[in-house]
């Protein structure tokens, strides 16, 4: 619980940081009438608050209980006495932040918009709900204690009052990825190990190639940043739970117990897509998730996956409102689009999942001490 990740860094924390166990993610819209000055002051206030929160300190100069008796406390207090719990706060900018509305360039950012920061295309099978997608800004708060993650989003949204408000948010309770070789691979709600073939922090060349926006990729303000894709993927686990183990393993192309490729070996053995069984059929089916998502099928494209399980109560039919809140970080949104297009068209898993929420954000590089997140955007 005492893990602290430094806030002021070259890249924002919460990307290659070993994935924590808990998530509170929120997308915000700027208030109608908010100005460029409001946006800048909000980012400055969020930066100062994020630096305090991630260090395990209260918000403000007085915190939860040290302030004047006749004023509301600066910090809401529910994390008072809790350790920092590895909290990271990662801020991103949505396409709408850069859009002109009714001919008005709200924040004077229209010319700073990266060409790639546009809404993701509609994928076959998408059943997106507007209320679960988009947003001018986002904050990903990850921690090993749910109270710490929720406290962060609560206080950051409180700070935004009058300038921005939450558009949608998502809690996640169990990481579905490893982003470091130091971590054991966790499981998603289908019961499979998830994160085996993920990009890991210990592969700096791979991270540079596939995760960080490079100089010359687009506007300079985003160099050292990344693109965040969020997809709320509903899983029909009741149907899944009635399918045979054989079908479940065929869907993914890996064993359920060990997570080994169906072509043989152990968890971290490279899948051999050419290998066939007695009948001549490929051991890893053509429609399996792992084959379709593998870099070999996608022009070498890789993603850093950092998603979470969710169960938000139940629906009217008594089914769990469960799924995977997919988050990936990539140097270019087209990396996600390439893989997702292949999955949307052919993945056997589609019978058991439904994409209901979608958002794309440009995540600026880390803030320098004395500066604030996204400062280069306003320089
Ligand atoms: C691999 C589950 C959605 C991209 C895997 C694996 C599992 C899995 C069990 C194998 C273990 C591993 O290497 O991590 C799921 C579930 C999903 C989901 C349950 C949704 C409910 C997605 C989406 C994308 C994606 C939306 C991207 C568009 C990948 C990639 C791999 C992978 C790139 C690694 C493939 C490889 O190189 O072997 N996923 N996944 N997944 N998944 Fe997913």
UniProtKB/TrEMBL annotation:
Cofactor(s) this protein requires: heme b
Keyword field: Heme, Iron, Membrane, Metal-binding, Oxidoreductase, Peroxidase, Signal, Transmembrane, Transmembrane helix
Cofactor note: Binds 1 heme b (iron(II)-protoporphyrin IX) group non-covalently per subunit.
Residue ranges annotated for the Dyp-type peroxidase C-terminal domain, each copy included: 185-367
Group of enzyme by EC: oxidoreductase
EC number: 1.11.1.-
Compartments where located: Cell envelope
Keyword Magnesium attached: no
Domain Dyp-type peroxidase N-terminal: 12-173
Recorded family membership: Belongs to the DyP-type peroxidase family.
Function: Involved in the recovery of exogenous heme iron. Extracts iron from heme while preserving the protoporphyrin ring intact.
Protein name: Deferrochelatase
Taxon lineage: Bacteria, Bacillati, Actinomycetota, Actinomycetes, Micrococcales
Gene behind this protein: efeB
Portion held of the full protein: 102 to 480 of 480
């Amino acid at each position: 619980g005492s893990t602290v990740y430094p806030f002021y860094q070259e890249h924002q924390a919460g990307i290659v940081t070993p994935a924590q166990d808990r998530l509170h993610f929120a997308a915000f819209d700027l208030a109608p009438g908010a100005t460029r000055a409001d946006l800048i002051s909000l980012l400055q206030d969020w930066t100062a608050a994020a630096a305090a929160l991630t260090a395990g300190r209260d918000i403000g100069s007085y915190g939860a209980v040290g302030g004047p008796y006749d004023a509301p406390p600066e910090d809401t207090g529910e994390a008072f006495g809790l350790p920092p719990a590895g909290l990271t706060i990662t801020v991103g900018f949505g396409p709408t932040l850069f859009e002109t509305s009714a001919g008005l360039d709200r924040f004077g950012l229209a010319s700073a918009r990266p060409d790639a920061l546009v809404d993701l295309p509609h994928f076959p099978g998408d059943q997106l709900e507007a209320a679960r997608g988009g947003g001018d800004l986002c904050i990903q708060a990850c921690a090993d204690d749910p109270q710490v993650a929720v406290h962060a989003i609560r206080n950051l949204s409180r700070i935004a009052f009058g300038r921005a408000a939450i558009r949608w948010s998502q809690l996640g309770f169990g990481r579905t990825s490893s982003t470091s070789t130091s971590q054991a691979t966790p499981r998603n709600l289908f019961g499979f190990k998830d994160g085996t073939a993920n990009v890991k922090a210990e592969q700096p060349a791979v991270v540079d190639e596939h995760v960080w926006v490079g100089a010359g990729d687009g506007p300079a303000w985003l160099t050292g940043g990344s693109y965040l894709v969020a997809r709320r993927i509903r899983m029909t686990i009741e149907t899944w739970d009635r399918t045979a183990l054989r079908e479940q393993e065929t869907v993914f192309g890996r064993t359920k117990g060990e997570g080994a490729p169906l072509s043989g070996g152990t968890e971290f053995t490279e899948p051999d897509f050419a290998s066939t069984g007695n009948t001549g059929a490929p051991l890893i089916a053509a429609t399996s998730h792992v084959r379709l998502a593998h870099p070999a099928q996608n022009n070498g494209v890789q993603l850093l996956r950092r998603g979470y399980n969710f169960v938000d109560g139940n629906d009217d039919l008594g089914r769990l409102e469960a799924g995977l809140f997919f988050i990936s970080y990539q140097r270019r949104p087209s990396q996600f689009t390439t893989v997702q297009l292949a999955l949307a068209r052919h993945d056997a898993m589609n019978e058991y999942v439904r994409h209901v929420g979608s958002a794309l954000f440009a995540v600026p590089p880390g803030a320098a001490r004395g500066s604030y997140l996204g400062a280069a955007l306003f320089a």
